[in-house]
Design goal:
The longest helix is centred in the last third of the chain and has 27 residues. Helix content is about 70%, strand content about 0%. It contains ten helices and no strands. Helix 6 runs parallel beside helix 9. By secondary structure, the chain is mainly α. The chain starts with 20 loop residues before the first helix and ends with a helix.
Length: about 220
């Protein structure tokens, strides 16, 4: 009886060419995410490129194909962190809504962001490295200016609609609002270690602060 020998299976060739644009973007994002966690857990000086590459499970060649240095990656980490954790969301509909409800919503949103553990760690990281990366500290300052301009637009629209005095300086009002309702209380909470607030407590505090603030802007 003749037995037909099975033909050996063909070897599947794997193409190891360059990654697609989408894959390259995913690798870059993964490196930024891994580096963010490492920097926030430690410090800029304590984290090496070797550690970042090993933790991300990529080669150093892959790292250098995307970032020229650890400093360049650190800048990407800070910019992404500031945009994700600290930048406020103000829609066109928010600008024309009743100012009290709008400011309460923004105040709660920004307070939650400012008191989030990742945001607190990011703020500490930026503060500790500001002397070495003044341009990043400036970028954070510019982000704060962006938030102020967005809120200043809300005050300008409220003046136009007669909700507050037309003689109010919109930019100054926005600056004072951010300090009185968000930055000041958040900084106090961080320094005191009392960063965990219930939704109810946060809403009550922000609402009371907004009402007091607007009382000074009305006739």
């Amino acid at each position: 009886m003749n037995v037909t020998k099975a033909k050996p299976a063909k070897t599947v060739r794997r193409h190891s060419g360059r990654p697609t644009k989408e894959q390259a973007g995913q690798i870059t994002g993964h490196l930024v995410d891994v580096a963010t966690r490492l920097f926030l857990e430690s410090s800029f000086e304590a984290v090496s490129i070797d550690l970042i590459a090993a933790t991300a499970r990529v080669s150093k060649q892959t790292f250098y194909a995307r970032f020229a240095s650890k400093e360049e990656l650190f800048a990407a980490v800070i910019h992404k962190g500031v945009n994700d954790l600290l930048a406020p969301e103000v829609t066109e509909s928010s600008r024309d809504a009743p100012i009290e409800a709008t400011l309460v919503r923004i105040g709660i949103e920004l307070s939650k962001r400012a008191l989030a553990p990742a945001a607190i760690a990011l703020d500490r990281l930026i503060t500790s490295e500001a002397h070495q990366f003044p341009e990043l500290a400036l970028a954070c300052h510019e982000n704060a200016n962006h938030a102020r301009e967005l809120i200043a637009d809300i005050f300008s629209n409220a003046m136009r609609d007669g909700q507050i005095r037309s003689t109010t300086d919109a930019r100054f009002a926005a600056e004072q609002f951010l300090y009185a309702v968000v930055d000041g209380p958040a900084r106090t909470a961080i320094l005191s270690g009392k960063t965990v607030r219930s939704e109810k407590d946060l809403r009550e505090r922000v609402t009371a602060a907004v009402q007091l603030f607007l009382d000074g802007c009305r006739d």
